[in-house]
Amino acid sequence: MLNAVLRIPTLAVHLDRQETFSFNKETQLFPIAGLIAAELNRQGKIKEEPSSLSPTSETSSEDFSPLKSVAERHHPYIVDLIAKEAAVSSSDIADFEMILYDTHKSCIGGLNDELIFSARLDNLEMSYCSTIGLINSLASRSSLQDEHCIRLISLFDHEEIGSMTAQGADSNLLPAILRRLSVLQSTETRPSAQDPDWTATAYEQTLSSSFLISADMAHSVNPNYAGKYEADHKPEMNKGTVIKINANSRYATNSPGIVLLREVASRINVPLQLFVVRNDSSCGSTIGPMLSAALGTRTLDLGNPQLSMHSIRETGGVYDVEYGINLFQSFFENFSELEKKILVD
């Protein structure tokens, strides 16, 4: 669909000079789809015709439906637009879910084209970096020749609303997949006849030997609000991926994880930064602590730095995308070797 269909208009500041921007989610967030006069003109109507059906109208059993049709529950023209995009008839649509999003395209900006202006950098950017990093780590036919680990990424929905959904990080999705993978037989771990119960602790052993990177965008220092950042932890865009640390475990990073990632980054010359919030500041969180607690797996939180997180137009660094891709590629390629060398006393 090329054109924007809906728009949620805010009230002009001239009519409501409140110091803080607030609104009623029930009454003040309705999107505008068009004007009645234009819609009537499109339909060739002079005025709306009253419905001939009433709650008590008799209908045949063939016409009965437990729910109103989608064209009755939603504006018929919206249904027509969806049908057109799906290349089906409007009557073929049984139901649909619709989510509004910003339709403006991303663009490159800055004096030297060093910035990305885009919606939803959080967290599409790290999803992209991890996906391409995984693909690049498998470019060679011999990529898995000496590999005894499984390279895996998980891209979850609904992180911003709590993750407690069937496809969210707080579901059983990832543990179930890991449990099924952990009992796959390989040439190195093929069980012997004397060990018929080799699968009994395969899942637990897999978790203890695994490492989870929770990749969610990080905060770059905002020059207009520099006082909001801890003096020695002010990440900057285009200076590398950020390792996120929090003493209250809002992030799951610990020292062994930092050492591992430092070695991974050194193999491919990717710069890293550290981020710790001020002691008098609140701190966001990620799915890292949630998954770390559920799985008992070593975990580290990281992300590329950005400005204006959760705004409709976020800002990130062009070069950080390449840094992120290279970092993930190096992690997949070198983890098996490096994790044996990191000892915790």
Q: Low-confidence spans: pLDDT under 50, at least 5 residues?
A: none
Beta-strand percentage range:
5-15%
Helix content: 25-40%
Largest sheet: number of strands, sense, barrel closure: 5 strands, mixed
Mean pLDDT: 87
Strand order of the largest sheet: 1-2-9-8-4
How many DSSP E strands? 9
Global structural class: alpha/beta
Number of helices: 9
Distance between the termini: 58 Å
Shape: globular
| Rg (CA only) | 26 Å
What's the SSE pattern? Answer: HHHEEHHHEEEHEHEEEH
Describe the secondary-structure layout.
Layout: H1 36-43, H2 70-73, H3 76-86, E1 107-109, E2 115-118, H4 121-136, H5 173-182, H6 202-209, E3 211-215, E4 218-219, E5 241-245, H7 255-266, E6 272-276, H8 288-295, E7 298-303, E8 305-307, E9 314-317, H9 318-338
Parallel strand pairs: 3-7, 4-8, 5-6
Antiparallel strand pairs: 1-2, 2-9, 5-7, 8-9
Helix pairs in contact: 4-9, 5-6, 7-9
